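RETRY 2/3 - previous attempt timed out on the joint model. Re-submitting the same 108-residue input unchanged.
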Amino acid sequence: MRPFTELVIRIMKQIPKGQVMTYGQIAKVAGSPRASRQVVRILHSMSNKHKLPWHRVINAKGQIAIKDKEVWMEQKLLLENEGIKVSDTGYIDLKAYQIDEIFYNEEV
DNA sequence: AAGGTGACTGTCA
DNA sequence: CTGACAGCCACCT
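RETRY 2/3 succeeded.
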């Protein structure tokens, strides 16, 4: 497994309940600012195997970035279940919920 | 090997 | 806030 992949998984596992990170932010912390799409790919392939909090990952606009209607709704409910307010159009207040400090550590 | 694709992003309107 | 566009980059056909 690539280092980048491991980092991304490691980082996502550390997202605190009630807070979110954007794809680009994760990519940046993992060392590849332009690899947001890869973060998405990792989410696709590893989220259920590694039990990652995929619903805490949204796009830079602070919006749920999924097309599938059912999964979209699932994410919205999961977020609201953690106390995060999501508008009807899927928007989230990044200023209130996005992690601003990088808390990444090598241990895990 | 070559081209298409996507749970993205920043910019402009 | 929404929508359109052009970059980006690894994976799939």
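Residues 32, 34-38, 41, 61, 89, 91 of chain A lie near DNA strand C (CB under 10 Å from a C1'). Closing ticket.
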